[in-house]
TrEMBL record:
This is Stage 0 sporulation protein A homolog. It holds the Pfam family Trans_reg_C. SMART domains: REC (SM00448), Trans_reg_C (SM00862). PANTHER family: ALKALINE PHOSPHATASE SYNTHESIS TRANSCRIPTIONAL REGULATORY PROTEIN PHOP (PTHR48111:SF73), REGULATOR OF RPOS (PTHR48111). May play the central regulatory role in sporulation. It may be an element of the effector pathway responsible for the activation of sporulation genes in response to nutritional stress. Spo0A may act in concert with spo0H (a sigma factor) to control the expression of some genes that are critical to the sporulation process. It comes from Clostridium carboxidivorans P7. Residues 132-231 bind DNA. One of its GO terms (biological process) is regulation of DNA-templated transcription. Residues 6-119 form the Response regulatory domain. Keywords: DNA-binding, Phosphoprotein, Transcription, Transcription regulation, Two-component regulatory system.
Amino acid sequence: MLDNKRVLVIDDENKIVDVIRSYLERDGAEVFEAFEGKNALETFERVNPDLIILDLMLPDMTGEEICKAIRKKSRVPIIMLTAKIDEKSVISGLHIGADDYVTKPFSPRELMARIFALLRRVSEEAVPLSDIVSLNNGDLVVDVLKREVRKKGENINLTITEYKVLMALLKYPQKTFTREELINAVLGEDYDGYDRVIDTHVKNLRQKLETNPKEPEYIITVHGTGYRLGGE
């Protein structure tokens, strides 16, 4: 199921967008659409999607240009959707940052299977962290080697559990953690306490990291599911 997943569909053919939308919404996704490049990039910035389905042939920009622009800011999964079937085009799309490639005409069932496989793979893969992780142009900095966290240049004292929560989210930036998954990652699978305890740790962490804890930038609540990483 794609409950609470935000999917941006970028294609200039209304019929194709409608078909993809119907299949995505059937599985619980929230679908956003764009029919040309400029609007696609604006929508991307506004909704911060969990997945992008991107056509290569658009009236004002190429899909490759859009993909490159998005990759400068985000690791969001991207599936290229195109009539180009030559090997060179496929390889080029993958090299500039696409995660998968589906050619037109396509089977909606095949597209959905690829979507599920890609999201499952992304959620299960940890991102190798560099020694220094910087978010939002240095507003939040994590020194992984020293286990130090700085907000606007000032050191922030985190508890061991709060630090583990932050590290779990940083390692899996595309994953939405359920409370149980976050508890397993932070407190261990043997933890047998109240699952809402993780909410308390998240609340305390937000008080320390967020400029406005009521409008968090870094620890985002996904209603009905859990939490995910925000920021760039």
